[in-house]
Amino acid sequence: MNFDFAEQTPKLMMLLWGLVAFAVVVGGLLVLLDAVPSYFARRREAQLVAASASGAPLPGRTKSREGLFATFFLLPTVLLLLIGLVVPAIRTTLLSFMDGGSQNFVGLDNYRWMFADDSIVRVLLNTLVWVTLVPLVATSIGLIYAVMVDKARLEAVAKSLIFMPMAISFVGASIIWKFVYAFRGEEQEQIGLLNQIVVSLGGEPRQWLLDSPLNTLLLIVIMVWIQAGFAMVVLSAAIKAIPADIVEAARLDGVSPWQMFWQITLPSIRPALIVVVVTISIATLKVFDIVRTSTNGNYDTSVIANEMYNQAFRYGQNGQGSALAVFLFVLVIPIVIFQIRNLRQQRREG
Question: Which residues of the chain form beta strands (DSSP E)?
């Protein structure tokens, strides 16, 4: 395959200008964040020195100046949020009321289509299965890991191995598990681990990712494999933070290990459990890479994020794709509200 620099010059120039713009913007922000605080600090120091030399009272900090200073630091973040989140969200919401070509207003037709089309209903049900099973199973496995490896020999090594899938991208993890589920005919040697185990036990190899709803459950296994390490790390830290006097008092009272877990450990790590479940739930609602890489959404395995991509970018139905995006956003809102209320409650209790 020959690479013609002459043909690719416009793209290379566009890439170069993009890198220059990125360097200018990021470098400019870093310079400002370094220069402006230094300027105000030097000015404040000079005022203090002058006041001390003249015997005048030390100048205080005015609220207007502090507000201006805070606005300066918050302004870049607010601008980036507006450009990257608020404006696209408003535009996507408006597009969800338009037709596929974004030309004509169709009202709620795209939302009616979402609940009337059998294939999209299947997508919604698949997403419900994902967001129900993944947080519960991943958190449960992570909790079991955290309890088992706590204060065990080679604890650091065990935690590193368990957490390792989190260092792999969703696409990389999906490719790994595609080899686990790989299928070959009965007359051929199996390269897939799962089919090799089945054949070793006297069974026949299967095309695991073609059979619904089993294929959806097998894809969920990939997500659980990735997220269990995250749950383990957070919950293990929460377990280690339990006050030693509480644990010691419980042991003096003669509680069994099972009672220790249910009456001491679990209530003590409740805030960490909520954080883990909420975080994994949001990640699961947005899952795209695993489905896209493993089955491309075929064989009744598609989820909202994957179908949103298909409708908007493959089929040219911007209105329907935007409606799915808005619906996904609406599903995330209750989880975010619950987390905010939970954090406020923790602050009041603290």
Answer: none
